[in-house]
């Protein structure tokens, strides 16, 4: 039971407000932060293994996708032996960290949230540079980071108490949640702070120790966040920070017998590989490994003939081209009733042609670069496929500049079973599909192997009700865009090949990192 001095009183959770960049003082602060962060370009960052800084002879770099010759940070190239040892060390420290009270662990998250809040502009600027997020998108990423820290801290205060059970005569009975062990955290680059911080903080606050292997395209923001955790009171031995090749190092971490669970967000292919590797027991393994997997999407917005067409156009453009379409929740299919198809498409193209593309640190650009040269090639290859499968209406090629810029691209008259309508592109490419009626539109919306997010625009309550019942996604949005899930308000995670429906930012999430222990004592 918590002692009086351990009890933490906190206010009710509220989402972190976004910065209003229309205010001159905020724009000025952001410009200063960009200068400050740019002055640190090329800095070297160590790994943290068993509480100590570790460097290697071989290095890796993180670069600016808006200007690829600019090196953001220099990182270490871990060996397989280092990865193996990281799990061993985390396993050793688990016995110490799990004994720290849930209240103390939650306090660490609250302190980390305050530090992130105080350094918001600087972290925004780093996200701008490292992964090509615009000011607004970067700010949303950092605000969500704060939300995860605040929300999961509060959730642990709730779940850290003995849980009431049905009373039994002659017994004292209750249930407690206990941590699992060593968690391997493999986050994505597209929400380089929020998703990484969410998985790491959920693991730590529940009493687990962590081995964090950040995405190769976004290690700098992860390194900064680890420093913030240490400053907030998380022991250095509780988090091992390791950088290196995904294949060798990642596989070693996943298959280690002392790895208890893996938290992953990324592509379907990598997620399935992790699931397969984690499912194979190895000598010395004493448990069934748990996987928390958030994978891809092929998200559709259904536009009914009874929709507000202008609102549907705006929501579709924002969901398709915000952060260059590099969100697992991004709209990559607009499924439109034939009665309004031509009107919708015309308005959609007109709106899309107003989008500005260029370096993400320039606030005048709505779209920045895609994250890497390989991503750019994959997306351009998909556009070539789309040109054969449908009608290119706007975009379709690389945009001007030395960065990885791609024009926002719309391809219409795409068959529902075409590759462009089925495969995740992860870029600023929208397939528009014509449906005979609303029922067929919902059938098309459900016809992929994914089930992450979806949206419906309709003024008809009966049609809305039908979508609620039959649109098979983890996050359904009605008369609004299918991106922009908020912690606490929209628990996030999907079905089928979109993952294990982890519901990040929801009431169930922390339970994924713990196990229940029922205790009953006979009393006289």
Going across the major beta sheet, what is the strand order?
Answer: 14-15-16-13-12-18-19
The total of helices stands at 15
Structural class: alpha/beta
Oligomer: single chain
What is the typical, i.e. mean, pLDDT? Answer: 97
Radius of gyration: 23 Å
Low-confidence residue ranges: 1-5
Strand content: 15-25%
Distance between the termini: 22 Å
Helix percent reads 25-40%
3D shape: globular
How is the main sheet built? Answer: 7 strands, mixed
Number of strands: 21
List its traits:
524 residues, alpha/beta, seven-stranded mixed sheet, five-stranded parallel sheet, 38% helix, disordered N terminus
Describe this entry's structure for a reader:
The structure is a single chain. Strands 14-15-16-13-12-18-19 form a seven-stranded mixed β-sheet, with helices on both faces. A hairpin with a 2-residue loop joins strand 4 (about 60-65) and strand 5. The protein has helices spanning about 25-40, 80-95, 100-120, 120-130, 135-160, 195-205, 220-230, 245-255, 270-280, 310-320, 340-350, 375-390, 420, 440-445, 460-470; strands at about 45, 45-50, 50-55, 60-65, 65-75, 170-180, 180-185, 210, 240, 260-265, 290-295, 300-305, 330-335, 390-395, 410, 430-435, 450, 455, 475-480, 495, 515-520. The radius of gyration is 23 Å and the shape is globular. The model is unreliable at about 1-5 (pLDDT under 50). Helices cover about 40% and strands about 20% of the residues. The chain contains 15 helices and 21 strands.
